[in-house]
Amino acid sequence: MGGLIVVEGLDGAGKRTLSAGLVEAWRAEGARVATLAFPRYGESIHADLGAEALRGQHGDTASSIEAMALLWALDRRDAADGLRNMLAANDIVLLDRYVASNAAYTAARHHEDAAGPSVDWIQHLEYERFGLPVPDLQVLLRVPVALAAERARNRAQTDAGRERDAYERDGDLQHRTGEVYDGLAQRHWMSQWTVADAETDTQQLAVRISNLLREGEGVTR
Fold it and tell me: How far apart are the C-alpha atoms of 221 and 216, rounded to whole Å?
């Protein structure tokens, strides 16, 4: 059974770039690595409905915090069997966003912290009721909110398919979400966490993660 690693962070934090660097480093060492990004836009009806809602479609769906959280959670529930198969066939499965993203944004929208009821609700819904695999390690890519917002704007300008949604345009929400992420990392919510930033050397981080997996310091699924 492979190790389940998750990269979390704000929109525009650079998760895709960090993930690509980690995958390259692990594969260079001969590891079998699979990747998956959530939400699964273009593959999951729930993810696509969520994205459309954040761009003004489907009436007042986006105004309901729990409705949006359920859409993101159902996307992962539908992917659960495939994720287990990936874990069985690889040494490492690396996810770009996972359950902690739902916990962070849901809590932030409710103006709660990482110890609030929204985080507990997401934990019960996704890990307990839906039975999603628990990560072995979660990596928080922490960057300043202003930098993440600038990157998201630049991405939207250069990629017509990456128009900023309501979450990305809400600077206050991004700031609160960053604080919840910090709290989740400090609490080691659901697994061990480690923190990276824009200056983190991906090869060194890949070695550190591999060592932690070998030491068995993650949560056993």
Answer: 12
Tokens of 133: 């695999």
What CATH number is given to the structural domain containing 190? 3.40.50.300
The residues that bridge with 93 in the sheet, in sequence order, are 4, 34
Q: What's the structural domain count of the chain? A: 1
Beta strands in the chain (DSSP E): 3-8, 33-37, 92-96, 137-141, 192-196
pLDDT tens by residue, 159-173: 555 566 777 778 899
Backbone dihedral angles phi then psi of residue 42, each to the nearest 5 degrees:
85, -10
Low-confidence winner among 46-60, 115-129, 134-148 (lowest mean pLDDT): 134-148
Residue bearing the bigger pLDDT, 166 or 104: 104
Q: What are phi and psi of 14, to 5 degrees?
A: 105, 25
Rounded CA separation 177/145 (Å): 10
pTM for this prediction: 0.89
